[in-house]
Amino acid sequence: MNKDEIITLVKDWRVALLIILVVLSIIAINPHFENGEFTTNLQYGLDLQKGAWLQLEFKSEVVGFQTDKATEDFITALKNQTDAEIYLVGDNKLEIRKLYTQEELAPIFAAAGGKLTSYQQGVTKSTAEDVKRILDAKINSLGTRDARINTLTGLDGVTRYIRVELAGVTMSEAQQVVGKQGKFEIRIVTIGNQTEHVVFGDTITGVGNPAQEPPGSGKWGVSFTMSEEGAKALQAAAIQYGAVSDPDNHDLQMLLDGKVIYSAPLSAELAGNLQHEVVRQLIASTGAGTTGQQAAQTLEIHLRNGALPVDVSVAGSGSVSANLGDHFKLMCLLAGVLALITVGIAVYYRYREPAIVLPMVCINASEIVILLGICVFTIQLDLATIAGLIAVLGTGIDQLIIITDEILHEGKVPSPNVYQKRLTRALGIIVASAATVVIAMLPLALMDLSSLRGFAIITILGVLIGVTITRPAYGRIIMAILSK
Prior knowledge:
By secondary structure, this protein is an alpha+beta fold. 52% of the residues lie in helices and 23% in strands. It has helices at 3-11, 13-29, 71-82, 102-111, 125-141, 171-179, 228-240, 268-274, 289-303, 322-351, 354-378, 383-407, 416-446, 450-482, and strands at residues 32-34, 37-39, 51-58, 61-67, 86-90, 93-96, 114-121, 123-124, 147-153, 158-167, 184-189, 195-200, 204-207, 211-212, 219-226, 252-256, 259-264, 281-288, 312-320. Strands 3, 8, 9, 10 and 19 form a five-stranded antiparallel beta sheet that branches. The chain has a four-stranded antiparallel beta sheet with strand order 5-6-4-7, with helices on one face. The protein starts with a helix and ends with a helix. The relative contact order is 0.12.
């Protein structure tokens, strides 16, 4: 093609859009040398760089029960016998936040006036999400990058395991990050901005879930229980510094690692009670609406000072050294290049025409570049996502062959009108095929299967980019080439 024909081709909106996206993707990837090493803005998962993973098992169980007693009385009896946190999580279902075997629970239920009907180790999905949220907040607060937390929830809604992947850290560092608790402190305002220490976080013996207090009021809060010693210290400080008589000028402050995360005066009812008795059960109110709910969820994490609502044990762990991660990166790069070369050879063997092979290979490569540009902002690259990229290479070349074969029906270059009809028919076939792939991959993308989720997301993105951007551009490019 001459210069004018190339300019006309580039000005076509389909080709221009493809070029713009490739350029923007390269800018986002930002390949460059830093400290003598070639690097990019791509984020790598645990498979491709130094890091560690921990698989935690919940030491809790979700059980079914039957009883002739009132449910509240039955749960109270169970709490007295087990000394565990027990929550009603459904019709005749309980979450017991302490690990017992089924054989151990059966006589306990019988003594409490009920019967154990089902047993499964783990926690409810909502509790698992709370644990995930707490771990995520803890990891972010410690400045750890490239962390991934995934829960594995069964079809029955019970989660037994949670997996934490921390790229860029050693195994000992990973265990410290997951197990570390912050320094929690309660202080009371005395005069002006001055405060005095009341208690530390070890006096908090239990923390409830965020809830509306009272129920149905629209006002959110978090209940927590203090030890007898902590409750006495709070009462003494409230009386000494005047919080019981003038609560508005003597806020109770909660601090985590020296940072104020909650400050509010005592309620009139609590101030009155503290004048005469020790109060162990307290409620920290956070306000109404969505803002109040979010503040309650955050406060719950802080009250636990990073501790999880359910005990966990390490069920599995592993690590990847820096050298091994670099080796995996090199192998993945070679696999991608070899896949592209193999595709080019196969296409050349079919058509024996470089003018057709080169656009196909370039279009295939452009899809990968655009996908990598998206990955910079959305997903880490691990072995599963690399496999997805290679799968996109294969499905992409299949669809380009469909377009080329449809246009070159009986080996003849059609007239412009016939060409457009054949291209439309080929794109219709590709759209139907793409829809099938998206539907097949969607469950994997939505489920909590971390090892397969990246593969599914990349495959879906690759199919969508192909249908909306690269296939139409290829159709315009191949028309210009075949017309010559």
